Each structure stands twice: as structure tokens, then as C-alpha cells.
Amino acid sequence: MDKESLNLPGYDIPEDMQSAVAVTTLDRIYNWGRRSSVWPLMFGLACCAIEMIVAQTARFDLARFGMEVMRPPPRQSDLMIVAGTVTKKMVPAIVRLYNQMPEPKYVVAMGACASSGGPFKEGYNVVAGIDKFLPVDVYIPGCPPTPQALIAGLIKLQEKIDKQSIRNVRWYQKGPDSVEVPVPILGPDLIDPRRNPDIRETASRNEG
Amino acid sequence: MYGKGILKGLSVTWKRFWNTYLDDIAWLLRGKKRYYTEEGIKHRSSKDQRGIFTIQYPEERLITPEEARYVPFLVYDEKPDGTREQRCTSCGICAKVCPPQCIWIVRSNDPNTGRPIPEPTEFYIDVDICMNCGFCAEYCPFDAIIMDHDFELASYGRSVYNMEKLLKPASYYKSIRPQQYERNEAERKAKEAAKAAKAAGAPAAPAT
Amino acid sequence: MATTIPQTETTQPSATDLSARFPGIVSADTRPGFKGWIVPKQNLLEVATVIRDELGYDLLSTVTGVDYFPDNKMEVVYHAYKTTGGPGLEFKVQVPREDPVEVPSLIDIWPGVDFQEREAWDLLGIRFTGHPDLRRILMWEGFHGHPLRKDWKEGFYEEEFKPFKSRWPSGQFYMAEDKNPYHDNLGFPPNFDPEKYIPEGDALVYGSLTRYSVKNEEGLSTDHIIVNMGPQHPSTHGVFRAALMLDGETIMSLKPVIGYLHRNHEKIGERNTFLLNMPYTDRLDYFNSMANNFGYALAVEKLMNIPVAERADYIRVIMAELTRVQNHIVFIGNLLNDLGAMYTPALYAFEERELILDIFEAVSGARMMCNYFRFGGVVRDVPDDVMQKIKDLVYERLPARTEEMDRFLTENEVLVSRLKGVHVIDGETAVKYSVTGPLLRAAGVPYDIRRADPYSIYDRFEFDVAMRTNGDLYDNYLIRLDEIWQSLRILQQAIKQIPKGPINSQKPQYQVRVPAGEAYGRIESPKGELGFYVISNGKPNPWRYHVRAPSFVNITPLEKICVGNKIADFVALFGVIDVVMGELDR
Q: What is the domain extent for residue A26?
């Protein structure tokens, strides 16, 4: 991190002390530390997963951004890159994984399919975008987005993290640290428990 | 001897490790900058590459070939008096040929004559569904919709592009796809010359 | 060195006249554009046994169900081939379309039809009597309806066929969610109460695992451990789940659970037109998009009966073989990853893949989803500077790097001790289970479609069919290296022989006229036999579009392969079958 972005503007530090002293806010240091070591969850669903893996390999090294380790277990990761089509059969597993991730956690919808169902939106087994279940921070369109586009999206996520403040993040407030998303059930079609009364009412109105 | 295979493999890794720095030294001795220059990027993406393979996005970018396809954009020609002339005549072929049907065009009729206006009233592309196939650009008879080279489209929300966002000047088209631009300009001029010749020769010879 | 098979004579197509063998029972399919033999339901088992034993068609490659809704019948189409080579035999069964729709199961004759029959039950509702475990395979138990039936409409149903009229000329933008009463891609039976619904869960999956008995002398009771190597796992190649029953670390029983990436290619394919399906085929086996395009283009060109421009044929072969090289190199990298060599061989492999993808991007416009083939040829020509890049790769860089990979890994003692001796599958079992591709060739059966039933211009090139005899993990690793060398040989010949000329025998058009009929186009994709079965009824949209995916059929013997091995070996065994979830689940 260079001195310009670390130092709080408006403070004049004498020349001979510039290499030893920096005046900054707690927010900046905290956010700098958090955004420079985001560990993604090793979670690829479909074709976008290949571009995500390629972004980790030698040509587009993600380790330069601090995201070098892709952790398999959700308890050790900060970022879930949903790469690929989200299908109804897979959604309960995805939501369970999201609930197991500790705060602070972020979700990036990589590719057309995770943003909105993509070209498969009309399929009977496809969920039209992961934002129907999880709160998404950054959307990266493309089919698949090239590794450079993925890195551009992750830089946008880093900028978003930079703007957060420890005064109003959820995990430092009173109340529960994180809000659990209820796990959907696979019935005659995908049942989202938050919409139970809705579904019951619409099903009683329709003749099928 | 047990371990000969492992030593053989280690010699390969060792050679690659050395190659990483040998090229650095060779370029330094030749007095050329290896990183952050286009020549360096070209060398690291060619068959002569040994050692370092990384292209450090975002400071260095891969050389985009002319054919590359990301999301489409509409082309307008800039007239000498500053007005924009759209090339799109809202024929609807791109909407018909889009595999996930993500192009929406409104073509309205002239209130006086009742015939359709050769310009789209509204034009939407749902970029979160677009699968970057290139069919719309391939089958457009007027060269009015072209695939862009811009991949940094990550955003914090969903994106549906309307006509304002999609319109870009023909000079931009020329800068990203020079060869295709030249080919199409030559075709258009040939067609116009043929039309002019036909119009001049029509009173003399009947059409067969 | 590999045991290679020199160029063999392909058997002459014998006019297998089934109607002469079974007079009065079997009749030829006389619909215009259709071929094959129609077998009545009650004689199916007898005819199938004769086909396998007397006529010698030992590899049953495809089982497809078709719904003829207006004619009120359902059909099951079988394609059988001989491992000695030659064209195949197609036979069908037609049954009336009233529930229950029943067809006898061929699982005792060809065990490889197991998963394909379950898929026909799941998606079309055809019940196969005699199948030991007829559960849904791609959708989950409890799903209402059989989705591929013509009268089943999905949640986001807009119109029967594309292009939709709602996009032009009055294309006011709307979200598809607003048109469905549930505001989402959902449909429930009438008067459904979600709070009273009890999901069956995985009881059926766990119930189908075979229980085993353990001798305990001291009177201690032991329990069976069921472990899920679940959909999210670092070593399964994508979203694949295996329910394992373990005794310590040894696998006693295994049932694969798939369908986590079922993206409804076939239903979307029926809504698309023929041309619009081409980019969707890219997304099937997303590692080898050029190969998928190739198979689909072949199938539709057979239907349309059009020739392919010669230069385009050579370009197709060059792209297909480059795809094979990058697939096998990445396979080696991924296999080593699964074994625990944390990432170094994979990184070396991905370097070569990047250079090949650069060529694909310069030619077709995209790295992975190339969308390059059209009916009658390819869409763009290969410019001279890209041809020079291909020459550089094929003559200098790829042979050097393949040789380096060989030196790096092949004699490594750790690799040899992990891979050698772990038996995968033997030749006879592999043929019975419809296994194709390098897995079959490493088991000792030299069946390669490029030699057995040549398509495109593969009969003009000299190459050997790579084959290994032991059928263990080490041979599966070595055969990929052999195939890379053979592909480089084909590439060098193709680059030398490529003529100048047009790249498409048809003019570019987006409304393709396809006459009525059926066609089955198959290619040797890097993973096995990739086939596309397309039925057209003269309209711009296909009537039935089925993908015979090699990954899906190759995991049929998974339980047989893995039982008795340890979990650490399961990871390597599953990795060596070389699956891609995009085509497994379609």
C-alpha cells in the first residue's frame, strides 16, 4: 500500500519522519488488511469455473491480489465466487455453504448464468440468478467472462470493501452476526421457505 | 537407483526456475524493458516464452485479437454537421437470431404514412443474459451492431442496456476492428456504385 | 512405447437385413428420411440378444427416448456398433403414449444402458420393466412431471418456438419473472401446501446402496458408514456427488448422484432453431467446444445432405486435434492435482492450454465458447499469421513441452506407485458397459471412431490408434501422452495438405432449411464418443435433440470400478474417467 492511500489527507508529516510515521484512520487500515487477503471458496459450478481456475494459474495470477489460496471448506474463506449456472438441485447446497461461511463474507456472481440465469434462463431446472437467494455484491457479465474480466470484477469488489466503515458493518452491531438464509427444499419444484404463504396462495388459485 | 524418476522431474522444475531469471537478465543486458511494454507482453505470449508467463493485469493487458467478442454495441456515423446517423434500420434480424433472445427492438410506424421508420424507437439488450455468441453481428445486413472489445463490465447491480448506452461512433468501430471496417466500407461503396450505375443505366436497358 | 495399431481395413457395411432374419416381426422404418428397424415390444429382448451375439454388435452406444405427441406414441431408439469397426445398426421400439408407458429393459443384455434408461424414465416417463433401480437421475425424486414431454411447459414458457414474436417489432422489455404467477421459474400442483410437504430427501439414494455383512467375533455390532463426497468437493471435477458406503477406508458400495448441473439442453434445443443451437453446444463439454460444434454440424449436415467445403474440412480437423491436445495436457495436470501434486504439473499444463486458446481467440473470437462451425463449413477463415502461429506451436513448442511433461512425470516413483497396479476396468467389461474413448483403449480394445467409422476427412491421414493393454491407472495416464503424439502427427499432415478455397459450401443464412428425417452424427471427442441424435419434421426447429455424452455413459461402471478400493484411489479412479459435468448432466 503506498503512502498516498494510507495517509489521511490534510496532515503534514515532516520529511525526515515520513518513512517512520503515517497518520491514518482505523477504517483505512482495517479495510486495507481485509481487502488485500480475501480468500475465495473453491466453488466452481460450470464453465465459468474453468476461467476462475485459469485466473489462478500462471498467466493471470490471482495471488498478486492476495487471493492466492482457494480454500475448500467454507469456514476458512471470505468470498464465494458463484461461477456457473445455479440449478434448483444445487441451490440447497449453495445456501448451506453460504450459511457456514463466517462474517465478513462477500458473494460475487460471475458470468451470465449466476447473474440472471444467462442463456439457460428458460430451463426448468435453472434458477434465474443466485441473487434470488443470496445477497450479491458484484455482478460480472460475460459468457464466460475472461480471466481479465474476472480480475476487473474482483478489483471492483476490493473498491467496495474499501468504502465500508467499521462503524456500520453488520458484524459489529448489536444483534446476530450474520443473517442465515433459510435452506430451500426440493419438492414438486423448488420451495423457498421465505415464500411459503405466497406459494400456498398462488397454488390454491391456479388449477395447475 | 530408486529416486531417479523423481530427480529427473526435479531437474525439469529446476530448469524452469532458472529460466524465470535468465530471461530477465538477458533482457536487462540488451537494455530493454521486459515488463509493462508491449514488446514484453508479446514475447511472453509467444512460443519463445520461457520462465515467466504472467501478464500483470491491470497494468499490462493481453493483446486483444480483432475477432474477440464481448457484448454488442450499435454503430452510428457522425455526419459533418455533427448529427448522428444510426445505421440500424430495426429490421429485427439480430433479435430473431439471438439464441437466448436477449435483444428487444421496438419499431414504430410513421404516423403520417403508416410505414415503418427505418430506425429503432427503443432497443434493449439484457447484458446479463447475453452469451457473447456474435450471431447478431454476423447476420446484420447493415453492419450496424458489432461485438465490442470492452470486457470491464462488472457492476454492483443488474444491467440492461438501452439504446443510449449501446450507441458508439463508427470511429470507435474502426479503431477496434480495422480490417473488418475496411472490408465493409469497400462493400458498401461497391454496392452504392452499382446502385448508381443501375440508376444511370436503367432508362436505357430494361431489367432482365 | 505404446502398442499401436496400424491402419486396418474397415469392415464393409453389411446390409444387416433384420427383416429377413425375423420375417413378419421386424419391419423397416419407412418414414421419409428415417432409417433403422422397428421391433415390436414383445420381441425386443429376443431380437436384441440376436443382434449382440449372432450379428456381433457388442457396443450399444445410445438409448434415446422420443415423444411423438401428435401421433400418440413414444419411441425408444437404440444405436449399436461393432468394436471391430464399421457403420452401426439402428433399431427402435414404438409404444402407445398412454400411462404407464412400458418398454422392456435391455440391461441384462447390455449393462451399459443403465443410466440412459433411467434418464429416459426421468425426462420422458418411459418405464423400463426389468430395470433393477429405476429412479430419477437428473431431476430429484418428487419433481412433478416428466419435463421433456411435449405437453409439459416449463415455468418461464413464453412461446413454443424461437424466434419469439415478443422481441420485435414491438419489443417492449419485460422480465420473464413477471409473466409467471409465482414471479419465478416455478410451477406447483394445484392446492399445494409447502408447509405440509415432507421431502423424501435422500432416503432412496441411501436405500439403494448395498448393505454388507461384517463378521464380528466378539459380538460387537458394527454400523455402516455412509459418506457423501458431496457436490462441493475439491477433487470431483465439478458438481458431482457420490454416496459411498465405507468399511474403514475401503469402499463397499457407491451410487453416483448427478443432475446438479442439469441445464436442460434438450428442452432448450427443441425450442431453438437449428442454427441457434450451435452456441449451446459449446457449453456441453466446455473444455472442448470445437469438438462439440463438430459433432452437431455433422449431424445436421447429414440431415440436410450438403457437402462440406474442403478447406473447411481441414480447418475443422486442425481445430479438433488442437482441442484434443489441450484436453489431454490439462487432463494430465488435473490427474496430478487429484493425486496431491499440489498444482505444479497443472500450472505447466495450463500454460500450453493458454497458447492454444490464444489461437482459438484469434480465429473464432472467444477463448472457450468458440461457436466456430456452421453447416457446410466454418464461419471465418484462418488468416496467414495465425496459421504461422499454429505451425510454430505444432512443430516446435508442443512437441518440446510434451516431451518435457513426459520426462517430468512418467518415471516419477511416487506417481508409479500410486497409479501402477490399480486396476480400472478390463476390455470385455468396458464394452459391455458402453465405455468409449481413451478409457476403452487403455483397457485393450482399439476402438477409435476416427479409424473405425471415419467421418470428415480422417481417412486421408496416417495415424495409429493408441492402445494399452493393462487397463490400470498408469496405462490410462500413458495413453493420453500417446494420443497427444498421434494428434501432433495428424496436425502436421493437415497443415501441409490444407488447400486454398472457400470456407463454406453454403451462403451465410440464418434460416436454415432442414428436410424431415433423423440423423445421428458422432465424433471421437477427447473423452469418448460424442453423438448428436437430431430429428427434424421439416420445420425450422428440431423435433428431438439428444446428446449422447461420453462422460454420462462412461460413469455407468463407476460402482464396479471403485468397489474394493480405498477412498484415495476413488479420487484417482474418478479422475481418470475424465468427466466434465457440463456434458454429464447436459
A: 3-33
In terms of phi and psi (left: phi > 0; alpha: psi -120 to 50; beta: otherwise), the region of C291 is alpha
pLDDT per position as a tens digit, B48-87: 888 788 888 888 888 888 889 988 999 998 888 888 888 8
Domain match, A102 and A63 both: yes
- Span(s) in chain C for CATH 1.10.645.10: 265-585
Name the neighbours of A, counting chains with at least 3 Cβ pairs within 8 A: B, C
pLDDT, chain C, mean:
87
Residues A101, A29 share a domain? no
- Asked if A116 is an interface residue toward chain B (Cβ–Cβ < 8 A), one would say yes
Residue numbers of A between 35 and 54 with CB closer than 8 Å to C: 42-47, 49-51, 53-54
Enumerate residues 208 to 267 of chain C having a beta carbon within 8 A of any beta carbon in chain A. Answer: 230-234, 238-239, 259-264, 267
Query: Chain C contact for A125, CB < 8 A?
Result: yes
At residue A3, does pLDDT exceed 70? no
d(CA C268, CA C547): 12
Q: Is the pLDDT of residue C1 over 70?
A: no
Give the distance from residue C361's alpha carbon to the nearest chain B alpha carbon, in angstroms.
6
Domain edge (last residue) among A120, A142, A159: A159
The reply to whether A102 and A42 lie within a common domain is: yes
CATH number reported for the structural domain that contains residue A104 in this entry: 3.40.50.12280
Q: What ipTM goes with this model?
A: 0.89
Higher model confidence: residue C74 or residue C230? C74
Does C163 lie at the interface with A, CB-CB under 8 angstroms? no
Q: Region C479-502: what's the mean pLDDT?
A: 92
d(CA B92, CA B145): 11
pLDDT at C201: 66
Confirm or reject CATH 3.40.50.360 for domain C3-129, answering yes or no.
no
Cell 432448450 sits on residue: C268
Interface touch C192/A188, C-beta < 8 Å:
yes
Architecture per CATH, domain C265-585, reads as Orthogonal Bundle (1.10)
List Cβ neighbours of B78 (8 Å cut-off, separation of 6 or more): B84, B85, B169, B170, B171
CA distance A109 to A153: 10
Distances in Å between the Cα of C239 and the Cα atoms of A44, A196, C258, C273 are 8, 28, 8, 29
Is any Cβ of chain C less than 8 angstroms from the Cβ of A89?
Answer: yes
Is some CB atom of chain C closer than 8 A to the CB atom of B178?
no
pLDDT, tens digit (0-9, with 9 covering 90-100), for A126-151 = 988 888 899 999 999 988 899 999 99
CATH number at residue B100: 3.30.70.3270
